Amino acid sequence: MMHLTNPLLLAVILINFFTLGSARLGACIRGVALQGALLALLPLLIHGFSGHAILLALGAFCLKGVLIPWMLLRAIREVRIRREVEPLIGFVPTLIFGALTTSGAFLFADFLPLVHEHREGLFVPTALATMFAGFLLLITRRKAITQVLGYLMLENGIFIIGVLLSEALPLMVEAGVLLDLLVGVFVMGIVMHQINREFTSLSTQRLSALKE
Amino acid sequence: MLELLVIFPLIVAAVSVPVSNYQVRSWLLPFGSGVHLLLSILLCRGYFPEINRWIGLDALSRLVLIVTSLLFFSCALYAVAYLNLRRDRGNRVMVPCLLVFLSAMTLATVARHLGLMWMAVEATTISSAPLIYYNRNRLSLEATWKYLLICSVGIALAMLGMLFVAYAALGGGAPVSLQFDLLLGGATTLSKPWLHAGFVFLLIGFGTKMGLAPLHTWKPDAYGEAPGLVGALLAGGLTSVAFLAILRGVQLMTAAGDGDMARQALLGMGLLSLLLASVFMVRQQDIKRMLAYSSVEHMGLLAIGVGIGGMATFGAMLHLINNALTKGGLFLAAGNIQRAFASKRLSEVRGALKALPVSGPLFLAGFLAITGSPPFGPFLSEFTILRGTFISGHMLLGMLILIFLSIVFIGMGATVLAATQGEPEQKDSGFKDHFLLYFSPLVLLLLILLIGVYIPASLQNALQQAADLLEVRP
To answer: Is residue B88 in a domain?
Structure first.
């Protein structure tokens, strides 16, 4: 089933661009959810239907594809925010940056001393590109919720590398990592709610009183 | 028994949720952490030895475990009186979060599996976020958001570093595992480029958590807005745990024969931390932010100590204890001062010595201790680090450290003296120095004084063993 991995990873890269270029928060959240759900298939495609892979896929699908997006969608419904307005860097420049970092990731991955079986696939370049896209979201957006999405995307990129190495990580640790992610986003959601109540806006630009 | 050490605070946290009596819930803190401290001491003295793939104690983790447990216990005693003053804010969130935080710190300390350690460190971030947000105002909200986001991203990068270490094992043909003893055993077979990349990301990730410059930006905000006792736990306990995580990386690099590279990276970041901290500490108008920058400075000293190696590593181990206990005492005393003046800014805080007959002098003594004045413990450890620096031939580096330390002394002195000297403005906030509120910082500073005067042979041995662990070469 390895031949299915490349289209899947290409879809992941396309979702990166979609999220970087979209102003509607709901669409962004759904994009990241779809990305998480697609990546949850990855362990099955690489390692086959072993118990470990099935549990990992199931856990990742439930958390990254369903539970966390549901929490975030509920959050934007509560605070009644639809769009990301005035990002620090406009949508077109972010897309260009995204294109540059993605091509950079592909070039860079060629130089990495990868083991033989990982040299052919798109795993490492996709992982790098997704991490960079996550960072771009974190840096260039003002809304707290988009920053959380950036963090999730960064985690998605790391997840790809984690799947390659899933024999190094016992199931208990993987479950713990996913649980930490869930609780982390949950706490971020609560803080976002408080930001909205306190400032009647979800923009982190208001969070600038603390400085030297 | 080691499992119990991690689980027990969790049980007490679960018990504290349904408890309805305010006082009883507060007293669960000293109860839980008192048992934790007792168990830690027994475990470190070698009772109940055990072998486990997941958790275990070595000289380094013993040191960090005892320090964090002791600090937590003294903060818990302080917390009872503090929470009594803050009935308006309540302790329904504070108490369970503090206990979960203790459990997570313990797990991160005793973990023998890099994945488990990562999980626990991430759990400390999540459980301490509500603690920073305790005051529920705009400023603490901002600090919490920055802390949560920056540290989560940092920890995510540490995860990447960990995976790179696993990849190094895969590339080197060794059995792929993140179990620390297996990794150490097969360190020489690890693929070098991936190991280096892994160490760099571990350093960035856990360095964010520890607050090494230039990754310290969340620190002044979080320490400044969190209650004094949370600041004490973050600056004394959590930083030590994060430092331990970095030391695991150093151990691995040294075992693989690349210790020098790891040490150089630590030296660079340590020196930058000293530089930035000394710059921002001059004319600092906020006593808690000043303490946060002082924490950055001491993280830099720890990194430099390990970076130099040899005698300086021993100094760094001693400094870990000194920094944790002194910072704890200072933050608690600063918390009392903030209560009394209803402010932590120099424009309002004046004459703390007169207004607070015990906490004021404690704050002043803590300042002298942390800047390395004899006869307190930090003098001894900073002196050892400096001696190690000069003996190993790093003349320029030693001079730079001395210059930065003197700038810090002058900068911090100006702020602390302005806050403590003079006549307090007549403004009665109804706060009086209370025995339980100055007992903990007093004990912590007395301990620091004791370490400065006399180091028992057993402590000396423990420190030497910890330092030796970092020097095991292939």
So the answer is: yes
